[in-house]
Amino acid sequence: NGNAGFQQVLERLESDPVCQRLSLKSFLILPFQRITRLKLLLQNILKRTCPGSEEEVQATQAYDALEKLIKDCNENVQRMKSTEELIYLSQKIEFECKIFPLISQSRRLVKCGELTALDFNNLSPKWKVTTRPIYLHLFNDCLLLSRPKE
To answer: GO molecular function, one example (predicted)?
Structure first.
């Protein structure tokens, strides 16, 4: 997004009839779609092979290898999404002092959301309740509380 030259080239390429007006994202997703189609193809091959034959053994080995590949791909996609979330969050959150690095290979965001903090002021004759929003960010290794800048 920050590189205007890249954006212009990308728009020109995506509008080119050779690319069938498909976005870059669709070309990046295409290999994953092919892998899942291969899995379906191997399942059909396994249904049609004779039990105990050499073909069945080879098809089973190929199927197992493909399942491992798909699992690895999914794990890597999840890891990248988690890293992107941490990068986005680190850009939004401003620490008064840096206690620990927010972005880490082992850290991932589990859940986040807004809560309302209630402050009771019992110094006045009437109990006065004030509210302010706070945010909880639950990571796999810590809990971070934040509040919007005033």
So the answer is: guanyl-nucleotide exchange factor activity
